[in-house]
Design brief:
Layout: E1 2-5, H1 10-22, E2 29-32, H2 43-46, E3 56-58, E4 64-66, H3 68-77, H4 89-117, H5 131-152, H6 165-179, H7 189-199, H8 202-205, H9 212-217
Parallel strand pairs: 1-2
Antiparallel strand pairs: 1-3, 3-4
């Protein structure tokens, strides 16, 4: 299998964390797609992923799977023992609900803020920007942080008692927030404590260096 991504990207981080949690690092190689040069928006890359976004998983039979949730579902099902997307119908439903909320209320909101209310990836990539919309999404992301703080005041992980895809999505949101210097409010004590615990997980801590051997060989 091959992963097309950018090593510091917050969305690619979601798949890198999932790979590590499942112990699948040795089964993939990585190919860099430079976000800052707009390589993800080229016709060549769009042939792999119409949306022009990262990451993308290429299977050995030539199938391309985009979207972090879809890639994580595929990886989690490979060994027949899913731990990230849920085992029971209830677990699956709750995890997907909370992961979607994390995308809508936090991760994607930070992304819109980055692309519209900051220089983003630069003028060669950011063809259109709406600063007002970006600032509204910044505020939405902060509200999302407060929501997940309220969730984590009641339970250890985002979707309940176990680490899951929902936690990975919130981690991605906070990685992006840190990149754009959007601080978690100081009164979000539960979210801050949870994030500190998450940063100590090997899958999160080592996500950027995961692909160094493969990159060195190319």
């Amino acid at each position: 299998m091959k992963i097309y991504d950018w090593h510091t990207g917050p969305y690619p981080a979601r798949v890198r964390i999932a790979l590590a949690e499942k112990g699948l690092q040795s089964r993939v190689t990585f190919e860099s797609v430079d976000l800052w040069k707009g390589e993800h928006k080229t016709d060549e890359f769009r042939a792999k992923n119409y949306s022009g976004t990262l990451p993308v998983l290429e299977l050995d039979d030539g199938t391309f799977i985009a979207e972090c949730t879809a890639i994580t579902e595929y990886l989690d099902a490979l060994d027949g023992a899913p731990v990230l997307t849920g085992r029971t119908a209830r677990e699956k439903g709750v995890i997907h609900m909370m992961s979607k909320r994390a995308e809508l209320e936090l991760l994607d909101a930070v992304s819109v803020y980055f692309h519209h209310a900051t220089p983003g990836l630069g003028p060669d990539v950011e063809i259109y920007q709406n600063a007002e919309w970006g600032l509204r999404q910044r505020d939405k992301a902060i509200n999302g942080m407060r929501y997940f703080d309220s969730v984590l005041r009641q339970q250890r992980f985002v979707a309940g008692d176990a680490f899951s895809m929902a936690d990975i999505t919130v981690i991605g949101g906070l990685i992006f927030a840190e990149l754009v210097e959007l601080a978690v409010p100081g009164d979000c004590e539960a979210l801050l404590a949870w994030n500190q615990r998450m940063q100590e997980r090997p899958s999160v801590r080592d996500r950027i260096t995961m692909s160094e051997p493969q990159r060195a060989a190319t």
